[in-house]
Amino acid sequence: MITHINQLGPETPHTGPAPTGTQAIVWSLDTTAHTIGGHHIHDAHTILDTEERTKAARFLQPDDRHRYTTSHLALRILLGKYLNQPPQHITLTREPCPTCGGPHGRPALTHPNLHFSLSHSGNLAYIALAATPVGIDIEQTPTPQTVNDIINTLHPTETTELKALTPDQQPPALARLWARKEACLKATGTGLSQGLTHPYVSTHPTPPPTPGWTLTDLPAPHGYTAALAQTQPPTTPHHSPTTAAQSAEPHQLRLGHTSVARTDST
Length: 266
Known about the structure:
Layout lengths: L5 E2 L16 E7 L4 E2 L2 E2 L3 H4 L2 H9 L3 H22 L8 E3 L12 E3 L5 E7 L2 E7 L3 E7 L3 H7 L5 H8 L6 H19 L25 E5 L5 E7 L36
Helix pairs in contact: 2-3
């Protein structure tokens, strides 16, 4: 069970060795920060690749652009530390889509023994690293209106479970369900192309068995829910010598965006 989230702050991170076996390492960061992992946000134009810079430029709102840039800068910093490479030398690619074979599957490295997943919601981002395919998702508690918009598009059993709850129980239950579902879809690389009905992940406090995968709810700050999916049962992750965060302000859920455990606000 994962009970610790490493906090990536302004200083250069001390990551330790890359994950091995069934180990999963999870990092969190404040995406409003201007200095992350020893680099200022202004360094991003020399570190991010052309595709990342192009995507960042497409955001109409400066805050959204900043969050995207910060989270991807952090991802490269961490990957560089674990692979002992400068962050700008990390080559990101896409695996073939498992559904159609197109070049839009899981984000991946050319390095065969390190897998990663990135998720951001509100002002927080979580990054998971593992030696096997992994997916992570963090979600904010949605509004009742979002529940009404989504409830009838899910797996029939999930819809039934949500409708059996009281109105105040439904938003956190939907956040829990969505984080689990998104983590699974990101781990497999299928995304939302086949709709929201599969896989079945339940609204109950304990995730159901998921054939071929281990689905784990992760600790998250108040107002957030997070989950991790991995091809093999995760063991207690490596504890990097960093301070874990313990609180964060809630923000509005953005369901369907791709964008655990103590955390301190920064």
